[in-house]
Amino acid sequence: MSNLSGHEREILSGKNFLFLATLNPDGSPQVSPVWVEAEDDLIVINTSRGRVKERNMARDPRVAVSAYNHDDPYNKIIIRGEVVEMTEEGAREHIDKLSQKYKGTPYPWMKPGDRRIIVKIRKK
Amino acid sequence: MSNLSGHEREILSGKNFLFLATLNPDGSPQVSPVWVEAEDDLIVINTSRGRVKERNMARDPRVAVSAYNHDDPYNKIIIRGEVVEMTEEGAREHIDKLSQKYKGTPYPWMKPGDRRIIVKIRKK
Question: Are A73 and B33 inside 8 Å of each other by CB?
Fold first, then answer.
């Protein structure tokens, strides 16, 4: 059941960081902040092949995310989700797009060999 | 092995929200923002009996936390931890102390029957 509310969409569209919780191989939780956008009805982030969160999501699609309005921290969202797609296609362009949103510049931290990945999450 | 770094302590001592990831009964992750302080070498939060995060931590002490400096979001911490104590003792006073830190007033949202709980987390 799965549709993002207007409030969730608003927080995700703002310049707010998303805290993404994933599951480690031993079942313990991991959490870290990421850039985010809402696209159609999905929560979309961008990470790199080989990072803990990427390996975790490839193994187990169950995630949870939370964020607040940076200018009003008590205005927050808490969402359980499921990874429905992980793809390298268009991911270099996509990290630049997210960087433009958050930093106003193309992504400044690309490293040689960095394989970016778009991750799409559906609200459960 | 388990001691908070100066950097972690600094972020936890600032007026920054902590995103706390816990495990649901089905093993999926849950994450939500909380007030926090560092006390001795522990990460200390305050919640209420019966909330999802409280029930989750009582069942499985494995947690993960992350936060950033509100004035410098790229200055962040990511910590795996374990709940080592959950107690109601002193928890009413403690939520007022945290509220003073974050809001500058005693806790304004206490509800009748709200049983506050101090949760102490050790870095793994």
Answer: yes
